[in-house]
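Hi V.,

You were right to ask for the full record rather than a summary. Here it is.
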Amino acid sequence: MTDPKPNPTRAHRPFVLIVCHSLTGHLSPLIRIASALHARGWETLFLGPTAHRQGIEAAGAVFLPLRGDADLDDKVYYENPPQPGYASLHWAERVLIDLRRQCLDPLPTQWACFVDALRFLQTCDPERKIILLAEAFFYGALPLFYGASLPDGLKLEEILLGSLCVSVTVPAIRSIDLPPAGYPFPFDSSPDGRKRNAKLWEKSWKRKSSDLAALLDTKLREAGARRTVNEIFLSGANYLCHDTILQLGVPGFEYPRSDWPRGFKFAGLVQGPPPNTKTLPSNSKAPNFPWWSELTSNTALSTLPISDPSRAEKKKVIVVAQGTVEINPRDLIVPTLQAFSNRSDVLVVAILGWKNASLLSYGIDIEIPPNARIADYVSYDAVLAHADVWVHNAGFGAVNHGIANGVPMVVAGEGMDKTENSRRVAWSGIGVDLGCAKPSAQLVREGVERVLENESFLKRVQELQKQSREIDCFDMVHSELVRIMKTCPGIKQ
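Predicted structure:
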């Protein structure tokens, strides 16, 4: 650990301690928030995995390392699954394994690292208070709210002003209007629908998740908590313990629940071009690919007068990405390349998602179609500025990149929150849900053609894009921190 550099312009503000689940899809939004807060004069410290140290420090935050079983490298985790036969399991079974291995098993170690971070900050400046900014799925902060004692010399009421939760997935908070996450039932808030939902929560999901609920309580006790959660797993304890919940996203993408909890607010998007340079520095440097100018030149054709014959030469651009969890390009990228391999009026840009990755690195030795361009790693926002359709496996961040850029999408995802995201894509009208994680080339082609032929998808995603532009996410986080600094609501144990 390195001491925060003295900065007299920031000294009057409390430290902001950021904690976050170690998956890339969770970390990326929090790192962008850290960068925005740094630009606004906050002293941010980020408790995170060592695999992401460089990105965290580049955001201007002081990096504090997780260790042991809490120091998860998600790329390694999914390349070397936690148990034999993992990849062949149904997605619902994989989710249960991931929740156990990623969130619950390391909870006591996460808590110990969190306590060390508090001790480090008090050593840096004993007079300076701390605000906790917690991503919802960092379970290692939960003991704080369930009666765990801090070591000698750390007095909760003297160091922590309050806490703010940031949700980077669809909200995993129980509602009378919704079944448990992942259940294949449509949104239904009618009296009959609510009866169905209650039955699924109390009978089905309570039974399926009972081991996880028991494990959570066990891990809390190991961490020194005096109380346990004592509720059905994923009902929302990891959200509701905080004073305020900032939900990344826009209202138009989420089902209209009647029972949002107190302090819940939609906070807009971290994805997309920054609202202004004061909020988050922008990077205007063009990606370093030999074909990038081809992409920008194609986009420029749309600005020509309708009477100009060159305008008709513009190709439809389909961007496809594999994501950071299910990273095998055979699942989605290869079928998309195959679906449009003989189309001279289409340009396909495929993003593998990891620096220095290649199809060959996954053992895929195929002839790249002449209309395909392959990127190992590139900013989604940079490439989506030129896209007509966005094909991806329904990560929440990927969905929001599409909304931020006003690009309708085709999604093919299962596992974690991807099933829920996929259903919301279809429900909100911003794209097509293929209903599986490994679609055929024909299924991808049919989904993309449906989006291209029906303007309603474009109009709807542009409506949600407008919602996102009306909410400055970074401004909202800043304002909430200022509110906590002024009101000092404290931590409720």
